[in-house]
Fold Lactate dehydrogenase a.
Amino acid sequence: MGHSKVAIIGAGSVGTALAYALLMRGSVTEILLVDISTSILQGQVLDLEDAALGTNTIIRAGTFNEASQSDVIVITADAPMNPQESELKWVKRNQQLMSSILSALLPIQPRAMIVVGSDPVDVLTWQLQEKTGLPRHCVFGVGGNTRSTARARAWIAEASGARHREDKASVYVVGSGQHPVVTWHSAHINNRSVNTIPELADHRATLERIVNSDRGNEIARLKGGAWFGRAAMLSRVVEACLVKNNDDQLPPPVFVLSVYVDSLNACLSMPVYLTHQGAQEQVQLNLSSEEEKALKEAAVETTRLYETSMIPPAEYQQ
């Protein structure tokens, strides 16, 4: 893999859990942790340095200028929604935060990749694609639909009675965080359609409930926030960005990532092949007419939110 440097912007729970996951995976040479709060940053780095003992990874506090020269820049900083806050105000606050981060990072080295782990992931990914100067395929997001896809596959495997690791379920959760779309029409396990398996055919509604459950808020209610699942998925994405696969016989891994979808003119979560050159070709989906309609509705809503949140705050219509 060679020397690899990953910068994590945001030394909060998700950012530090990601740093720890990368340390344990041993796939990164150097990790830079960046945060505007110097005291929190220093404390997290001191703690993570102890975790790094006995590994081949260096972890240290870094500056935005140093981060901009990294191979992969992961942004985990975001502003949580306040209880009485409208969605539009929350999105705008996070766009302003992203603008300040981007101003501190620019210019970014041209071979870098940016992974957005902040919410709302589709809007913020779209914003950074427009402003960084990097190719669109080098700026992508990891959001709730990435994790929902993993949960959906686990549910299908368990419900079908799969007992072995080689029993592979294939289903995607695409669309937006607010409007997830389960690709049930083409879902299968071991190349067998779920619609032909009695244990699964009549349980689409169950899977829809699992995907649409407010899992993140429930975890936050119980323990204050959800970060391990987010960090674990981010670490796998980062690792895929760094691996140079020289075996043409092996296809690159597929992740559901927030990317710009040309046919829908919006950033949405879609399955794509991920390599050290970024998010490559999108996986072709065989959607039902109902799923296609839902995906278009997700694109319309994401576009509305993105365009509306870009207006000056004084012009908001609450």
